[in-house]
Design a protein that fits this description.
By secondary structure, this protein is α+β, with helices and mostly antiparallel strands. It is built from three helices and ten strands; from the N terminus they run ααβββββββββαβ.
């Protein structure tokens, strides 16, 4: 009987803990600069990996910058020479927070992660982000992976 009571108490506490986690606001996104926006994937000028879960995309020109925050980190993201930016249903080719996915090829297979934020940022905001990310790596759109030697 005591084990049954302890088991029920554990389940109640676990349930309360999970409910508490689910009801917490996403404060980690509140600090992101800029405003919610969308862009067309066919107009990507280039992209810069800030860290394993943050990417700056310039589209349709070098003057328009978007901050992307991934749902989860992709380990070694800055070393990927090619990234895919996939919009979802509705407006094919339009990349927004509600439907955007970043795809990185690599072993053991491709990582396809949704974005949790797409923010249009100013040139000054982009410059500040880049200044605070000394290891950022910029890639031109359509970059080809380096040739492999045999």
């Amino acid at each position: 009987m005591a084990q049954r009571t302890i088991g029920h108490a554990f389940l109640v506490l676990l349930g309360l803990g999970l409910a508490g986690c689910a009801s917490q606001p996403r404060t980690d996104l509140a600090h992101l600069p800029g405003k919610d926006a969308c862009f067309w994937t066919r107009t990507i000028f280039d992209w810069t990996v800030i860290d394993d879960s943050t990417v700056l995309v310039r589209a349709p020109s070098a003057n328009d910058t978007y901050l992307l925050k991934l749902f989860a980190p992709i380990p070694g993201l800055k070393f990927h020479q090619v990234l895919g930016f996939q919009g979802g249903d509705g407006m094919p080719g339009q990349f927004c927070r509600q439907n955007g996915y970043v795809i990185a090829r690599g072993p053991p297979g491709p990582d396809r992660l949704p974005v949790v934020a797409v923010r249009s940022i100013t040139a000054a905001q982009a410059k500040q982000i880049l200044a605070n990310a000394p290891g950022a790596v910029r890639h031109p759109a359509g970059a080809k992976p380096p040739a492999q030697s045999n």
